[in-house]
User: Which sequence fits this backbone?
């Protein structure tokens, strides 16, 4: 299985003189260099782009959270488990914001067993509630990588072929307790086209390296809390789709919201939960069977039709038509006293950004906002020639 | 003491502006007395006005009582009352044309920077009637800029749709800049956008519009819509997603009243008032092949384009789909009867 040469470890490489990056100016202050470094880190995310690669839009993702004894370590404040759960709440919200028609499920592993915290669902409320409740759970025993992957695989293998099947494991222990040969399981995962990625909290573990390499995922070990957040948020973006995944037309129903409907009906989504009252005034009706549901996106329990609303699909469009990165030009090249085209503020930074299509000039903050949230150039859409 | 007969007052017709002023004063006093206003927060209201000259030209022929100048008067009454509520309220006005969007107020041509935001002005014109100077400055600037925009814009190209998505994008960036500036000074800022729409929707701007709406929702910025002529599906979706109010005005002449009663209170005060109920939003999408609105359709898993009928190839991304064929049953071998 390991015919590929492994990459060189950090201690085997040459010396890196990291102190040479910082340069003092004539007064001995480091302000300019620090600003430069901050500026580069802001731009780093904007520069990555997938280009014309097919992305997996409908994702089924399982997140496996290690709840073993090592998660009580306090190297992440207040302890590893609480820090992880807090970041997971942010992850779930961001995930549904970027992938509105995808689903997420949560699994925890401790005491050599794996347990499903929540099933695969498309609505963030249940996951957030479960994560809040899990804060009080105790961390005991050893994790079991085999059991958790097996549990996730049982559900994922029944998912249709055009969706992407993923597992993200947050692994903090250095050991795992498996009832059977994990390499066999890795072969099975590879044949089912399930992509497994691991985020390590302690150190690099060889089993995880092999697992991620074989299934096509990524493996990183976090350095501190902000790096952990960055690694976790990396999985929010849709990954490039597998070459062999099938593309198909999915039958979906688009629902209009009905407010203050005349008859009180039992909502189908409330049949599972016993703590909520089942009657509500407004809701969504399935266009095929008129069963009532309170939240979208959901699969109709009566007729099996996937129900979405148009904004859900529209949220994913910016992945398909990404905005190109803007060109950097130094401020001196522009005629004096120019204003940023988007926010009408004076241009003060040394470097300004120009859109390659319409030559609109933007300041750093606007450029970050445009590429992160807005996904369209304000001066391009203010001209008549946009489509 | 003789009870004096109350003198009979001569009835006279109140002009529209007098009614508006009385309403404004009473409404303003009511709001001040009943609600506590947080003085440390900045409230920014951005008004986006649709000044499509083609629609306004036709409107001037249809109904001469309600022209662009009357509409602008009503909008400035609302802007003035917003700024008069507390000293920490701010205003911005953007005009949305089919060529470009311009900031009418604050305007960099006039103050040469963003001096108007801090309330410091170099030469405030003397307004003679004792009005709060900021209000008279705002009125003058908006009137001047509007005249300039309408007279200097030339007809280029042949598209006559208002660039609403572009104006909203500019409004968002401007709000963001102010948030950053004031946040560093330790003040919080809440903002909302009021769109006054006249012409019809442009289907080509759908994607840009949706991007802008989602960006506004992420920043917790409300989008309210006041529609004068025909219903706009895009604005209904925008108001539903961001949590704002959508209202189609039955009588255009009473625009000032609607603006003051419905759109002046901000987010904290709205649950305590009885406002127009939310409208039924039509979230059906149009299929890519016929542009019909459909309820049940087929969605391509690669490019998310919508079709009304099953077809083996997606026209947008040209992927071939796997068709589910019925399974072939193996024919059972019939036992040949042995002929004796």
Assistant:
């Amino acid at each position: 299985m390991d015919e590929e040469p492994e990459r060189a470890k950090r201690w085997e490489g040459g010396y890196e003189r990291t102190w040479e990056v910082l340069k003092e100016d004539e007064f001995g202050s480091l302000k300019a260099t620090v600003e430069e470094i901050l500026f580069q880190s802001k731009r780093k995310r904007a520069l990555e782009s997938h280009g014309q690669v097919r992305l997996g839009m409908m994702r089924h993702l399982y997140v496996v959270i290690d709840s073993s004894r090592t998660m009580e370590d306090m190297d992440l404040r207040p302890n590893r488990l609480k820090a992880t759960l807090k970041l997971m709440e942010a992850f779930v919200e961001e995930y549904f914001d970027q992938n509105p028609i995808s689903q997420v499920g949560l699994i925890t592993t401790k005491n050599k067993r794996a347990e499903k915290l929540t099933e695969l669902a498309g609505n963030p409320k249940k996951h957030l509630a479960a994560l809040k409740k899990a804060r009080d759970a105790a961390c005991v025993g050893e994790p079991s990588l085999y059991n958790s992957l097996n549990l996730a695989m049982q559900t994922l293998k029944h998912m249709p072929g055009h969706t992407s099947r993923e597992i993200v494991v947050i692994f903090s222990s250095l050991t795992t307790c498996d009832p059977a040969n994990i390499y066999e399981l890795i072969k099975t995962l590879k044949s089912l086209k399930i992509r497994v990625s691991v985020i390590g909290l302690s150190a690099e573990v060889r089993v995880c390296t092999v697992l991620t390499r074989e299934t096509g995922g990524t493996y990183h070990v976090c350095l501190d809390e902000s790096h952990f957040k960055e690694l976790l948020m990396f999985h929010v973006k849709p990954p490039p789709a597998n070459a062999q995944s099938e593309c198909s037309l999915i039958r979906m129903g688009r629902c209009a919201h009905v407010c203050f409907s005349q008859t009180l009906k039992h909502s189908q989504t409330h049949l599972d939960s016993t703590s909520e009252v089942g009657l509500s005034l407004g809701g969504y009706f399935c266009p095929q069977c008129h069963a009532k549901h309170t939240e979208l996106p959901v699969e109709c329990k009566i007729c099996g039709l996937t129900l979405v609303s148009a904004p859900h699909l529209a949220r994913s469009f910016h992945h398909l038509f990404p905005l190109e990165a803007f060109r950097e030009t130094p401020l001196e090249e522009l005629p004096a006293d120019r204003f940023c085209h988007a926010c009408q503020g004076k241009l003060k930074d040394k470097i300004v950004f120009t859109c390659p299509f319409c030559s609109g000039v933007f300041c750093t903050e606007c450029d970050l906002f445009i590429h992160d949230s807005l996904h369209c150039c304000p001066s391009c859409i203010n001209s008549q020639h946009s489509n | 003491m003789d009870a004096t007969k109350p003198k009979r007052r001569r009835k006279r017709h109140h002009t529209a502006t007098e009614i508006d002023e009385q309403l404004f004063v009473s409404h303003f006093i009511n709001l001040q007395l009943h609600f506590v206003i947080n003085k440390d927060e900045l409230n920014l209201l951005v008004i986006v006005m649709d000044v499509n000259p083609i629609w306004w030209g036709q409107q001037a022929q249809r109904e001469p009582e309600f022209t662009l100048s009357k509409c602008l008067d009503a909008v400035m009454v609302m802007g003035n009352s917003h700024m008069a509520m507390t000293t920490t309220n701010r205003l911005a006005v953007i005009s949305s044309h089919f060529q470009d969007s311009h900031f009418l107020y604050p305007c960099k041509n006039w103050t040469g920077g963003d001096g108007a935001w801090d309330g410091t002005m170099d030469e405030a014109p003397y307004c003679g009637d004792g009005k709060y100077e900021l209000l008279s400055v705002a009125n003058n600037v908006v009137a001047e800029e509007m005249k300039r925009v309408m007279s200097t814009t030339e007809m280029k190209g042949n598209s006559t749709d208002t660039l609403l998505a572009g104006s909203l994008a500019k409004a968002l960036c401007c709000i963001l800049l102010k948030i950053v500036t004031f946040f560093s000074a330790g003040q919080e800022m809440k903002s909302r956008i009021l769109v006054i729409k006249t012409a019809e929707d442009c289907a080509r701007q759908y994607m840009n519009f949706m991007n802008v709406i989602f960006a506004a929702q992420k920043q917790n910025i409300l989008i309210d819509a006041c529609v004068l002529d025909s219903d706009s599906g895009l604005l209904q979706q925008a108001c539903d997603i961001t949590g704002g109010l959508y209202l189609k005005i039955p009588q255009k002449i009473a625009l000032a009243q609607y603006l003051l009663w419905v759109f002046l209170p901000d987010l904290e005060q709205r649950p305590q008032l009885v406002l127009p109920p939310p409208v039924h939003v039509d979230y059906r999408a149009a299929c890519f092949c016929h542009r019909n609105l459909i309820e049940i359709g087929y969605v391509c898993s690669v490019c998310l384009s919508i079709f009304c009928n099953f077809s083996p190839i997606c026209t947008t991304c040209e992927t071939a789909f796997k068709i589910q064929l019925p399974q072939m049953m193996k024919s059972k071998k019939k036992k040949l009867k042995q002929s004796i």
In short: The longest strand of chain B covers residues 41-50. Residues 110-123 of chain B have pLDDT under 50 and may be disordered. Residues 164-184 of chain B form the longest helix (21 residues).
